[in-house]
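Appendix B. Raw example, untouched.
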Amino acid sequence: FGPLRLFDDWAGAQRLHAEVDVDLASLPNAVASCSSCHSSDSVGPHRAMQRGSSYWGSKARKNNTEWAVSFGQPIVLSSIVLNWHKSSLPNHVQLRVSVDNGSSYRIVAQSSVPSHDSAEMYMPLETPVLATNLSCICTGFAKCNQEQNRSHKLERVRVHKPVPGVPNVSTRLLVQTMTAWLTKVASAPPNSAYASYVPPLV
């Protein structure tokens, strides 16, 4: 039970820096794909890049599925928001990115679905990353996913990039800096310089 756990409890999924939305549907060469695609184009993988009531739906009773997108150009990512259809959430989500057009991937974020039945998952990256591809690995089914033919249904994937000129502060760096400052203040003599000193985060 360390400082990082306390930060999760206090701050939840709040943004730690200024971000702007990247409209995937407006990228001219963006292509979505999936490992478990439904036969109907009405729930094809490209639907998760569009606004509106459409969604990507995996085949029924597939425990492990993947939704992926090739941006068609390098993009700096700072967070990803996954909006799920109603209660068709997986049990666990892992986000991976590629910098070489899908030749190799690395994990940048992963999370179990919260115990509450939220259809939105905000997944911040510890530091912004440059990526050409994004992959979302879905595993299992959340407790709220009680459909007879359970599946993963992703309404929309939104990606954010940091605002130019506004420094990014990672969760770990923020908590480490706060912890160090509080420790110094607690052990410093009364009226010392530490009482009014706020350390820089970047």
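End of appendix B.
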